Amino acid sequence: MKSMSVALVALALLLPAAASAAERLVVAPYPAEIPWTLATDQRQGRMMLQEYVPVDQTVDDYQDMLIVQAFPESRTLPPATFMKAMISGVSYACEGVSVNGPVDREEGGYKVAYGQIYCGHQLGKPDGAHIFIKMIQGKDAMYVIQREFRVPPTKVAGTLAFGAEDKDRALALIKDEAAANAYLTDSVFLCADGASEARCKP
Question: Is 134 in contact with 148 (CB distance < 8 Å)?
Fold first, then answer.
C-alpha cells in the first residue's frame, strides 16, 4: 500500500463493519487513453480498499492512482468532518500543503463533500502529490474516492514545478485534473437499494 493518502486512514479497516447492505457504490471505469486496472482489492464485510492504476504503472511505482474505500465505522460522521481529519493527517506527511474545501453538497439524497489537497513534497519521497477527493455518507459506510497525481516537488504547494521543456506535461496535468473533477462529480455516486434513478439502473 504505497499511496500516501490511503496509508493515513487505513487503520480504520481494522474496525467492525455494518451488517446491512442498503446501498451500492457506483464507480465508473476511469476515462483515459490508456486503460486502468484494479491492482488492489481488499474486502472484509462492508470494509473495502481498492486501488486502480493505468496498465503501464504499478502500485509500487505509479504516477496516477484511483483509490476507493468504505469505512462502516465512520458512517455517522459528516463527510466534511471526515475529510478535515484526513487533511490534518496529510499535513504531517508533506512539506507544504494547500487545500481547497471541504465543500458540502447533497447528491441523490446523500451528504457529499469534495476537496483537493496539494502536497508540495511528500516526506521521504521525491514527489509532490495532488489529491482530488469525494466523500459520500451512506447508511452502510463512509465512502472515500480519491484521484491522486504524483507531480514534481515544489516549495509552494499547489503550484507546478515543470521546467520550460515540460510545458506539454504541465498542460496535460491541468487537463487531467479537470477531467478528474468531472469524473468524481458525474461518474462516482451512491445508489440506494431499489433506487429508480436512471443512472442507478443496471
Answer: no
User: Which residue, 52, 17, 8, 16, is CA-closest to 34?
Assistant: 52
The DSSP call for residue 82 is: H
Q: List pLDDT tens digits, range 71-90.
A: 999 999 999 999 999 988 88
Q: How many domains does the chain have?
A: 1
Q: What CATH number does residue 100 fall under?
A: 3.40.1000
- CA 70 – CA 50 distance, rounded (Å): 9
- Is residue 138 within 8 A of residue 23, CB to CB? The reply is yes
Beta carbons of 143 and 77 less than 8 angstroms apart:
no
How far is residue 110's CA from residue 76's CA, in Å, rounded to a whole number?
Answer: 12
Which tens digits make up the pLDDT trace of 139-158? 999 999 999 999 988 887 76
Placement of cell 464485510 in the chain: 45
Q: Where are the beta strands (DSSP E) in 141-201?
A: 142-151, 188-192
The answer, yes or no, to whether residue 64 has pLDDT greater than 80, is yes
Helices (H), 10-150: 79-91
Structural domain boundaries, residue 153: 4-200
What is the DSSP code string of 168-182? Answer: HHHHHHHHHHHHHHH
